[in-house]
Write a structure and sequence with these properties.
Number of helices: 8
Largest sheet: 2 strands, antiparallel
Radius of gyration: 20 Å
Shape: globular
Distance between the termini: 23 Å
Structural class: mainly alpha
Number of strands: 4
Low-confidence stretches: 1-6, 11-19
Strand order of the largest sheet: 1-2
Mean pLDDT: 90
């Protein structure tokens, strides 16, 4: 579910698309939705998204509380658009719950830690769970303007610390996810190599080099672990 859709529907729901008055407690849903948007983002530790076991356990506990709060909202008398908004928020919460109970990409899939994307997704949002702070290179024009260079640089400087953290986070035993995820990490190295000539002579050149070195090192580590992975994905 693309998060932008829920935001759009909530805005439509607030106005009802007509002159209807918002139903009682609909404002409670709107307020919870705004809180939910902030909650979905992982906590940052020294600027790096925290997907550690402790952080994910805490998020799962807090998610259960938010689901209880949503369930406590009485939708009796709501218009159809307002009920749709409610169900979309519920679906998003269920999606994160599924990630925690079943997918656990931060613990099972090395591809989760790919953050450099040179091509636009063919969907409004990238398919499957992705790490916060991804660098959508396709959305920038080179040479980069100062503000764009700052944003790209922030993302690049996160990569070494994120990949170091991931070595502790990744404890899954799914062989296919591990093998194909490793290929995705190697593709990130190739994408960084392709980015390097575009930023030569700028402060970003060193950031790209360090990000590529960390990515290559991570790929080697993944290869060493691959032989111990035995379960189906």
């Amino acid at each position: 579910m693309d998060s932008r859709y829920a935001g759009l529907l909530l805005i439509v729901g607030c106005t009802g698309g007509t002159a209807e008055r918002p139903a009682p407690r609909y404002q409670d849903l709107s307020a919870l939705f705004q809180e939910w948007r902030r909650f979905q983002q992982p906590k940052l530790v020294e600027g790096v998204p925290d997907y550690s076991p402790a952080a994910m356990a805490a998020q799962r506990q807090e998610l259960a509380v938010m689901q209880e709060r949503l369930a406590a909202i009485d939708t009796a008398g709501w218009s159809i658009p307002q009920q749709v908004d409610y169900r979309i928020v519920k679906a998003e919460m269920n999606g994160l719950d599924f990630d925690h109970r079943v997918l656990q990409p931060w613990a099972r899939n090395p591809a989760f830690y790919v953050t450099v994307f040179p091509d636009e997704s063919d969907q409004p949002a990238r398919e499957g769970p992705v790490t916060a702070g991804a660098i959508e290179l396709w959305s920038y024009r080179f040479p980069l303007a100062a503000d764009d260079a700052r944003k790209v640089g922030d993302g690049l400087r996160t990569i070494p610390k994120l990949l170091e953290q991931s070595r502790t986070n990744l404890v899954g035993n799914a062989k296919d996810l591990w093998v194909y995820g490793t290929r995705s990490i190697r593709q990130q190295s190739a994408d960084l190599a392709a980015l390097s000539p575009k930023v030569q002579g700028t402060a970003l050149a060193a950031d790209v080099a360090r990000a590529k070195e960390a990515t290559d090192s991570f790929a080697v580590w993944l290869d060493r672990q691959a032989g111990s992975k035995t379960e189906p994905s």
